[in-house]
Amino acid sequence: MKPKISIVIPYSQYPNYLKECLTSLNESTYQDEEVLLVTDHVTEELPALREGIKVIDSHGSGVAAARNTGIEAASGEYIYFMDADDYVLNNTLEKLWQAADGQDLVYGIVNNTWNNKANFLEKKAKKEEEQEDIEEKEERRQERIAQYQSTLPEDANLEQEMAIYFLLRNRKGIRNFTVLGNLYKKSFLDRYNIRFCEDFRYYSNMTFMCPVLEHVESAVQVQDAIYVKRKHNDPINYPALRQEDSDDRFEERLKAVAYTRTLLNPEGHVRYFLDMKLIHYFTNVMTKRIRRSEDDKWRNEYFNMLIPYVEDTQPAVLDALGRQNTRLVRALLKGDINGVQKAIRWKFGKKKLKSMLHNRNTAYKLAYYHSYLKKDIQPKVILFETFMAKNYSDSPKYIFEYIAKNYPEYTCVWAINDGYKVPYGAKTVRRFSFQYAYYLAVAKYLVFNVRPPLWYRKREGQVFLETWHGTPLKRLVFDQAEVTSASPKYKQQFYKQRQDWDFLVSANPFSTKTFRSCFMYEGRMLEYGYPRNDILYAPNKEEIAARIRKQLKIPADKKTILYAPTWRDDEVIAKGQYGFELALNLETMRRELSDDYVILLRTHHYVAEHIDITGYEDFVYNVCDYDDISELYLISDICITDYSSVFFDYANLKRPILFYVYDFDKYKNQLRGFYIDMETEVPGPLLYTTEEVADAVKHIDEINEQYHDRYEEFYNRFCCYDDGHASEHVAKALLGKE
């Protein structure tokens, strides 16, 4: 018996993605299908395949050839295309099939994501819970549809026109043509001989989809049949096809448009919207390249190459343009690059002026790019910043203090936001201010413990020291299979920024090896320990501790517990903002321990503002705003943490460490993953409830004895570079005074 749906999956590389793709089909509630895995120059071993999957060699190279091979081999009534790095939801195919009643085309919804299926579903559920205006959005959607339908002639095929509306008109840009998420009737494709043009590596989708829309007579949309298009969050090592960097893209885009035009009615609606996409590409994308790119080919070769393709545009498309875009297109058709550049300056100049008047952030960036970068670098100026200018702390603090004491001829500038008065007469500037942008441009030396702003451009002659901010337990950057934080372009951005680093500080051999891998860093590693840990070896550390206890008003008869949990990647509120719920039950801790202990609560700087200890002020001290956590280590008798790197530093004191890991399985398997085995390598017990934590504190002497040998091994492995002189060694390396 023939299957109802043939699923065609081209495959050439990245078996981990393919595994999840096939798993999503295994979990599908619809099983009357055949899966055709069409391989193209596969060099890696295929993952284990379920029984019944047919593996076919493509008759040619590239996605288009693989899909055509699949069409010819398909025996199903309908064809469904998937990319090997994508997945479907459990009910997607079933919903599409239920709507299929002999239609030529049944089209669903494509959702884009950077996440695996588990994280996608979790975020989708959260979004649905929080979305209160679903009805309002649907109402606006229906209004837009009605408006579009009102422009159609009375004899229009409404099913065809709505397919054109959703699958062509509403797609942003030529590159967003997609054949994914839809059922195509096999007999319909054969009747009109609709196939992919195999001459195109990047833009074959339009050569298939436009003829489908040109000829389709019956079509239906299924809004809740979701296909998930997965973007690769590591385009450096594992680029998707659309993330490949190629000089051939521009010319191929134009040739694909020209070829597709030959398949269409020159006066038809599909041709109209295809031409509109080409004009949109010129007026909204290419103009930015002409204006900004350092490569003159955008103003010469590519500019001239585009002209004949725009000349062949439907007149109705040009008639529909606004004044500014009409001016741009007219200049293009005359071959007048100067006229185009003048129109671009007018178009974007108005935007800049508006932006400057309403957004101060744009103004200081413009000053940075157009003025400050032209000034001379000041050879004796050093700019310091920690945690995006939130405080005066961490390794940059100790490097600065060593330089201020020993090399007073240097001018030190601190980026800091809260008006903190930095010692030794250092100048302070607010982050994202004109002065901040100025010193980013002219300082000879820059010392950061996180990344600088994305708009920073390192100049020839500048020296960038990255101290980083901890020995890694959680997998970082290029060692992360999945990025669940707010910035899905994290790896791409990180790769670009880490190329600016001249030095990177390492606290131990483990960090050196890990940083080489996770940062793809090949520059000089300063293997001296963390400057921020120098205070833990200071000869007067007991005096410092007494001063801090007095400053925080900690009762003399109480011991202190430092509770320092980290943030969770998936608790995203908005871009760069994270939520946090305190899992440790403070009431239980107070009841069990308040006779002997107080708690110092210190969260990660990402989530510090979300902490509320109302009602527990007699037992819990909120030290989230205390700048220097290294000083808090000195006054803490016990450290409780989870996946924060604080325990690597705290271990220098050889004091007890407890690990409250209430979400251990999720963090280990779904979020970050770990570099070391927490169950066998960390110097303290893993605890899963508040009751277990309280009990461990009560029996801390027994815990110390139980973990003594493991603690010694841990100390020797991770604290071996720290000796109290890291600041000196790092400062001398930075200034070239070794």
Topology:
Elements: E1 5-11, H1 15-26, E2 33-39, E3 54-57, H2 63-73, E4 78-81, E5 87-88, H3 92-99, E6 105-113, H4 117-130, H5 134-150, H6 158-169, E7 182-185, H7 186-191, H8 204-215, E8 219-230, H9 249-261, H10 269-292, H11 301-311, H12 315-319, H13 323-333, H14 337-358, H15 360-370, E9 378-385, H16 394-406, E10 411-415, E11 427-429, H17 434-442, E12 443-448, E13 463-466, H18 490-498, E14 503-506, H19 509-518, E15 524-527, H20 541-552, E16 559-564, E17 572-574, E18 577-578, H21 586-593, E19 597-601, E20 620-622, H22 629-634, E21 638-641, H23 646-650, E22 657-660, H24 664-671, H25 678-681, E23 686-687, H26 690-698, H27 700-706, H28 708-718, H29 726-735
Parallel strand pairs: 1-2, 1-4, 2-3, 6-8, 9-10, 9-12, 10-11, 12-13, 13-14, 14-15, 16-19, 16-21, 19-20, 21-22, 22-23
Antiparallel strand pairs: 4-7, 5-8, 6-7, 17-18
Helix pairs in contact: 6-8, 6-10, 8-9, 9-11, 10-14, 13-14, 14-15, 15-17, 16-29, 21-26
Overview of the molecule:
This protein is of the alpha/beta class. It folds into 4 domains: 5-240, Alpha-Beta Complex (Spore Coat Polysaccharide Biosynthesis Protein SpsA, Chain A), CATH 3.90.550; 283-348, no CATH class; 369-533, Rossmann fold (3-Layer(aba) Sandwich); 535-718, CDP-glycerol glycerophosphotransferase, C-terminal domain (Rossmann fold), CATH 3.40.50.12580. Helix content is 42%, strand content 15%. The protein contains 29 helices and 23 strands. The strands form 4 sheets. Strands 3-2-1-4-7-6-8-5 form an 8-stranded mixed beta sheet. Strand 14 (503-506), helix 19 and strand 15 (524-527) form a beta-alpha-beta unit. Helix 6 (158-169) packs antiparallel against helix 8, helix 15 (360-370) runs parallel beside helix 17 (434-442) and helix 16 (394-406) packs across helix 29.
